[in-house]
Design a protein that fits this description.
Elements: H1 13-25, H2 30-46, H3 50-70, E1 78-82, H4 92-106, E2 110-113, H5 119-127, E3 132-137, E4 155-158, H6 161-170, E5 174-177, H7 182-196, E6 205-208, H8 216-228, E7 242-244, H9 247-257, E8 261-267, E9 270-275, H10 281-290, E10 301-304, E11 321-324, H11 331-342
Parallel strand pairs: 1-2, 1-5, 2-3, 3-4, 5-6, 6-7
Antiparallel strand pairs: 8-9, 9-11, 10-11
């Protein structure tokens, strides 16, 4: 009969063997790796269905390689670009994407696309291979690696869509949507849902339209008339996305979003917003007056330094903070709050 394993240190000889393995391999964050090993062993004990084990194995391998590819570029902001694989290079929207990606590269951003044809090729073409990633999915059609990224070392091939989706958003400091089909709409809705529910930090979500506004303007009308008027979303949810026809305006919007806002995290129920430059008490008073609705009952906004619990991110400790008790509900309003911070 197999030994029942636990994530705490009650596994006797198994814990000793795992500790010895970790010491011999000299891994980073050994306690985290220890729990991953135990998770794999427990799965092997509990589940004899081979397809489940294959899914977990492949997921681990794909995410490990994802982290390896992106790790050397942690200090550069990245923009994920979505749009139709069927867009032809002769179409104006293709050329608009090339221009947009070129502007991003000129400002030291990197571009993430799916590595295929159409808008994906346009994004890689504009940014160039040195400033691009391609996160490809194995499909029987439409997904041959485009010529810009064919020989790049920043290409990742995924078996599972969900791993690819994680990479697109996990590494992105902004997401930009050009006109596309079901896949583009799927990615856009997912980003909005994750930001709206607080499952991912607020980032710019920009929809770049044709010059005649023939695509995303209709999406806006649908969102207003079919969703807002029925009470299926709230007015503040319109802050989750921005629509423009101008690539330069889109790039400027991303720049402006990070003008003072750096990043955020939750610490014991408190929302900690890291800033590039310190705010003063007058700024704090304005924010408290204009955005009191985002606070939990009895909550307040305060200017602070790094909290002790943030010591696990030593490269960010020097940044000034704005700390508050956020209501964990008004994420559309939180994006507007960040834009107000950037206005000072």
């Amino acid at each position: 009969m197999s030994m029942k394993l636990s994530f705490d240190r009650s596994n006797g000889e198994i814990d000793v063997l795992i500790d010895d393995l970790l010491q011999r391999t000299q891994v980073h964050h050994p306690e985290m790796i220890r729990q991953m090993i135990l998770g794999a062993l427990k799965s092997g004990q509990e589940n004899d269905y081979l397809a489940d084990q294959k899914l977990m194995r492949t997921t681990m391998k794909e995410m490990r390689f994802t982290n390896k590819v992106f790790a050397p570029y942690r200090d550069r902001k990245k923009v994920s670009i979505f749009g139709s694989a069927r867009t032809e290079p002769s179409e104006p929207i293709y050329q608009k994407c090339v221009k947009f990606a070129r502007l991003l590269a000129e400002r030291n951003y990197m571009v993430i696309t799916g590595g295929g044809p159409g808008i994906m090729l346009a994004g890689n073409e504009g940014a160039g291979a040195d400033n691009s990633f391609a996160v490809n999915i194995d499909l029987p059609f439409e997904q041959d690696m485009n010529p810009v990224m064919k020989d790049s070392d920043k290409v990742i091939n995924y078996k599972y869509f969900f791993n690819r989706k994680v990479a697109f958003l996990k590494e992105a400091d902004a997401v930009v949507l050009f006109p596309g089909g079901f896949g583009t709409l799927d990615e856009g809705m997912e980003v909005m849902t994750l930001i709206q529910t607080g499952k991912t930090p607020p980032i710019p979500l920009i929809m770049i339209d044709d010059d005649n506004g023939g695509y995303w303007d209709m999406f806006f009308d649908f969102t207003r008339d079919a969703l807002l008027k029925r009470g299926l979303i709230s007015g503040e949810d319109f802050a989750l996305f921005t629509i423009t026809k101008d690539p330069l305006e889109a790039v400027q919007y991303i720049d402006d979003f990070y003008r003072n806002y750096h990043s955020l995290r939750f610490v014991k129920g408190k929302l900690v917003i890291r800033l590039n430059k310190v705010l003063d008490t007058d700024h704090l008073q304005v924010l408290s007056s204009e955005f009191g609705a985002i606070l939990a009952p009895g909550g307040s906004m305060r200017l602070t330094n790094a909290l002790p619990e943030e010591a696990d991110q030593p490269n960010l400790l020097q940044l000034p903070r704005l700390t508050m008790e956020f209501n964990r509900r008004s994420y559309g309003l939180l994006k507007a709050f960040i834009r107000r911070i950037n206005s000072f």
